Inverse folding.
């Protein structure tokens, strides 16, 4: 790879001609543009930032950078957790947040076409007002859809509805040369050559810049009910999950958390939401389960059967949240886990592993015992139905260098255990900058060489989001 | 690309050492190994065929061929419709049909691990006996799972359950160098680098040889009911489909067919299955719809609502198939469409296009009018819920060269219309050898260059299934 060229005054003039009034450089650049939600992986400002408005503008900026060998990184809302949108090698940052229009619905064919800067929350609400569900439901509702697609985000409803990958029908992409192309089409099936659409999903902005998306929708379920289910301890809680899935009751979401993280979240919200004790027995862990259905009547027998099953499996109680207010309250506690953790600690790192559902207790126990050898504090919660765990290491007052050293040693061991259990090192956050080293260890040389080969095919000069997914040498 | 080397007596000796007693060459080779179900795309026998039994044997054969620059093509049951498993450049044929063991179930995590030569029907039945559903349901039940994954087959139940792509968790792959690697893992979510697993699915044996598969299962629905729904004509029939999908009733399958192909199929079966006239009105087209649910009671209101909707939309009647015998009979007619067509014609070609569901009537009318300019006869049917149409051109007594010429002219125009409607040239059959020219036209130079680049990364010598998906120059 040739060394990158700087963004010169001449380049700035050309950027300004492409996007008049929407280019910032040097000191003017918004300081947020140097980081995402996990600054531990390094803060790097771009030399210039361009608030783009269209595919044509993006193509023009990328072409200019390609010709001059300048790195280009794409940023949506900056809500990522692995440093994926941080311009590690400087260069130009494409900011897509103003490309936030929902362009059109095709309600007969159940698709919607959007710009990449539309927020998840914005689409979810708008789709509902059209009688449709956009199923992917990551905890972070203020992420852009472009970001969601780039990381293959999934979230709570993955159990029933899958990940973002399953809802992308087509995309317009600017390739690193500045060429514009489309992958996929609005239809639901294809077996027409290598699936470039699927390859771009989860590629974290390293193969192309997504400038438009056609997404699949579903008819919105008429009834949604959540169950809050306290258990005495984690093992009883988790061993219930495979039983639930085998029951054929088909829940939309199955989340688990232990009492510690709930307390953290409730302290942040300044409100106690879930019971801490049932009939004198202390609650150790909770499931938060959501069912949806065609009508409240149709859900009734499902909820009854679920309650029987849960109590049979040792649940201390089954609390029903069946009104919008109750649903909101139950999920607010779950949604504030990260904010609660952030408030309590100076430095934070995390991992986003996936293990087979039945191995969660063993894995959590392993993580606990391993963390006992270090000085940081562990907090975690997860998508129990998918085996996807979010494990946070909280520095408390530890020194930064020491924290980084300890976390690296811990994560290396934790990822080795993940792979030994047949897991994956990231379920939905991606590799970004923070997990590059661990991906290389996890997938091995052969697969990494294939990934690097693919990168080379799309981006022979290595200008697009360098240093992400794998190192940029 | 270097010219390929022949399979010499020395190579045969080495193949025999790898797979003793399971190598055939020259005249001994099973003549079926030169073709699939669509011989119109050319019959080519391999120089040698090896009935492989394990990943290790496959790796050894591929390594040998890589070193000597000999083409390698993988064949399952040979039920493809685009010449995908035909060894167009001779060389060695890997036959996987004896790798037909279901290796293990993980019923708590809902996965099954199989060898690639397991037949779809074999897994479907075995999974049911374990209380599980393997959702992909192509018409051809005697295809191997390796073949299904290589073409991303989908079939009837795609409306509710998606394609094979959605049910592959992990695979063991022999790369063209003979290296063995794995893509994916048994867990349900990942965002861990480029998704090589998804890239292999639908790549038609051109990037690697699949030697083991871990597949996702679902709890088997307790109740399955089909509705046979006659309409006066195709337009009324098809316009009902988006309404059905918007209703939230979530059918498993929505098939459509017109009276002509039903007559063909019934003639083949020597049995009349569906009514030809309802209360004096001739039936022009049919929907065959399947619903599944957790119990017969739970399905009852769904079926009632569906029947009301169908009659509102102009259905002449709604016939219920709710016993195993009735279900089998209704679907037998549907399943015999291809056999019925094959029996009636000397030469056959087909396409497997996908268009938005709402455009089916317009598209079928276009195909009809276009076919009027040619001497062949058109037969078609389709997965209405997905917009996936199977259109057959039947030569009757036409001369082969003339038939090929006319079909090429027809298909070129038909595919252009497909792309103009935002469709795809293949929904589930793949590109193979038969559709190479049309794929290049459909996806354009930029995307084709990316696909060729990816092929080069995996297979720099171009030994794996050459001449498929794109031309081998």
């Amino acid at each position: 790879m040739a060394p990158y060229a700087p963004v010169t005054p001449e380049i700035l003039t050309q950027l300004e001609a492409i996007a008049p009034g929407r280019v910032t450089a040097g000191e003017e650049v918004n300081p947020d543009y140097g980081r995402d939600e996990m600054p531990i992986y390094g803060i790097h400002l771009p030399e210039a930032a361009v608030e783009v408005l269209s595919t044509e503008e993006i193509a023009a900026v990328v072409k200019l950078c390609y010709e001059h060998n300048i790195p280009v990184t794409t940023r949506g809302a900056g809500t990522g957790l692995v440093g994926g949108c941080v311009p590690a090698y400087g260069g130009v940052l494409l900011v897509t947040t103003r490309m936030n229009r929902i362009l059109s619905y095709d309600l007969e064919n159940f698709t919607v076409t959007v710009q990449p800067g539309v927020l998840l929350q914005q689409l979810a609400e708008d789709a509902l007002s059209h009688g449709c569900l956009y199923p992917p439901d990551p905890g972070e509702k203020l992420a852009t859809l472009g970001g969601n697609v780039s990381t293959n985000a999934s979230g709570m409803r993955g159990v029933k509805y899958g990940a973002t990958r399953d809802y992308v029908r087509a995309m317009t992409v600017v390739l690193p040369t500045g060429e514009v192309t489309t992958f996929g089409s609005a239809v639901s099936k294809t077996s027409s050559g290598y699936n470039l659409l699927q390859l771009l999903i989860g590629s974290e902005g390293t193969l192309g810049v997504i400038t438009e998306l056609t997404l699949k929708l579903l008819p919105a379920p008429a009834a949604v009910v959540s169950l809050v289910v306290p258990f005495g301890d984690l093992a009883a809680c988790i061993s219930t999950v495979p039983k639930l899935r085998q029951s054929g009751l088909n829940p939309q979401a199955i989340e688990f958390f232990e009492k510690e993280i709930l307390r953290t979240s409730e302290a942040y919200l300044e409100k106690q939401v879930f019971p801490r004790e049932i009939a004198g027995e202390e609650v150790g862990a909770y499931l938060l389960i959501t069912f949806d259905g065609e009508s409240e009547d149709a859900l009734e027998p499902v909820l009854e059967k679920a309650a029987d099953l849960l109590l049979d499996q040792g649940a201390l109680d089954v609390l029903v949240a069946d009104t919008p207010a109750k649903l909101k309250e139950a999920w607010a506690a779950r949604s504030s886990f990260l904010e609660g953790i952030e408030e309590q600690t100076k430095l934070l790192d995390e991992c986003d592993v996936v293990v087979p559902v039945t191995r969660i207790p063993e894995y959590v126990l392993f993580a606990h015992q391993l963390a006992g050898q270090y000085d940081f504090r562990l907090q975690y919660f997860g998508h129990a139905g998918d085996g996807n765990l979010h494990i946070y290491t909280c520095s408390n007052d530890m020194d930064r260098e020491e924290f980084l050293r300890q976390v690296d040693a811990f994560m290396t061991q934790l990822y080795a255990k993940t792979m030994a259990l047949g897991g994956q090192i990231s379920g939905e956050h991606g590799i970004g900058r923070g997990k590059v080293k661990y991906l290389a260890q996890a997938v091995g040389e052969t697969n990494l060489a294939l990934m690097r080969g693919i990168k080379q095919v799309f981006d022979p000069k290595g200008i697009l989001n360098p240093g992400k997914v794998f190192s940029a040498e």
User: Anything to note?
Assistant: Chain A is about 35% helix and 20% strand.
